[in-house]
Specification:
This protein has two domains: 4-150 and 252-275, no CATH class; 155-249, no CATH class. The protein is 26% helix and 32% strand. The protein has seven helices and 14 strands. It has helices at residues 31-40, 122-134, 137-140, 155-163, 188-196, 213-225, 263-275, and strands at residues 4-15, 45-47, 50-60, 65-73, 81-82, 87-88, 98-104, 109-113, 145-150, 166-175, 201-207, 230-235, 243-246, 254-258. The strands form three sheets. Strands 1, 2, 3, 4, 7, 8, 9 and 14 form an eight-stranded antiparallel beta sheet that branches. Strands 11-10-12-13 form a four-stranded antiparallel beta sheet, with helices on one face. A hairpin with a 4-residue loop joins strand 5 and strand 6. 36% of the residues are buried.
């Protein structure tokens, strides 16, 4: 019987610094193609005595989705992959571990397998992937910025908002626009204004005696899809004090896949989890 493996959901964004926005008016850059190019042209990255690299590519150029592996070796002298094929050996020594990464660059999401031999912290693996891809020519030569951010499970926070006696304050953190964003709520307008003043990030804050729960739930779900953070100050019962909650303190969305999953099946599960 096949073992279950834990994968964790991350948002992938490509943005431009303010001074380069004139090159990419109206969002006319093919972000999915940029990400594919970067994935397939990475160079190894040396960090803390380890050589990190990508391999085992299974890529659909049509759908701009598929799977690859990220791994590390103990040193440059003992690589963890076949340099001719760019492949990791499935039976490799645990000193040269790797994790599988499912990706859909059209949607802008990836899922990273947790492999404790590689790192107990899946966010560290995501940070290494961001560093590796950011050093590729397509990012360096065009002055582009790559961000890989965890998609948080908003279910518990949403339930706290719904069951609260009163919502007293609410804030949402946001960054510059990405045309692939699924967030359709009011914070798209501040994102446009953020670009108008050449800013990189901002925060909207609201205070009141009784903020609208349903609107805050909708915005929180939207923020989760875009990997934006929200802060909620609520009173859980009459006479209680205000307690602050933060989306980024919630766990990363976790997906269970069989050890020998089919790539297309894994991608379908990932897409469904992201859209929930």
């Amino acid at each position: 019987m096949s073992k279950e493996k834990d994968f964790y959901l991350f948002r992938v964004d490509v943005t431009t610094p303010a001074q380069h926005d004139w090159i990419y008016k109206n969002g006319n850059i093919d972000r999915a193609k940029i990400l594919i190019d970067a994935t397939l042209s990475v160079s190894d990255l040396y960090s803390r005595g380890r050589n990190w690299s990508l391999g085992n590519y299974n890529v659909s150029m049509e759908s701009r989705s598929g799977l690859f592996c990220i791994g590390r070796s103990a040193s440059f002298r003992k690589p963890s992959r076949d340099n001719k094929l760019g492949n990791y050996n499935v039976n490799i020594d645990i000193k040269n571990p790797f994790s599988r990464v499912l990706f859909d660059y059209e949607l802008g999401v990836i899922c990273i397998e947790r492999n404790y031999d590689l790192s107990a912290d899946v966010e560290r693996v995501a940070n290494m992937l961001q560093k590796i891809m950011s050093t590729t020519p397509v990012f360096v030569d065009n002055g582009l910025i790559l961000s890989i951010r965890a998609v948080r499970d908003s279910a518990e926070l949403v339930e706290k908002i719904k069951s609260a006696y009163l919502i007293k304050k609410f804030s949402i953190h946001f960054t510059r626009r990405n045309p692939r964003n699924l967030d359709k709520f009011f914070h798209q307008l501040p994102k446009i204004q953020l670009e108008e003043i050449d800013g990189s990030e901002g925060t909207l804050s609201f205070h009141g005696e009784e903020l609208n729960k349903s609107k805050i739930v909708a915005i929180t779900k939207s923020a989760r899809v875009a990997s934006n953070n929200v802060f909620v100050g609520l009173i859980s019962e009459k006479g209680g004090r205000v307690i602050n909650h933060e989306l980024n303190r919630s766990p990363i969305v976790r997906i269970e896949l069989s050890e020998d999953f089919v790539v297309e099946s894994g991608l379908s599960i990932m897409r469904n989890c992201y859209g929930e």
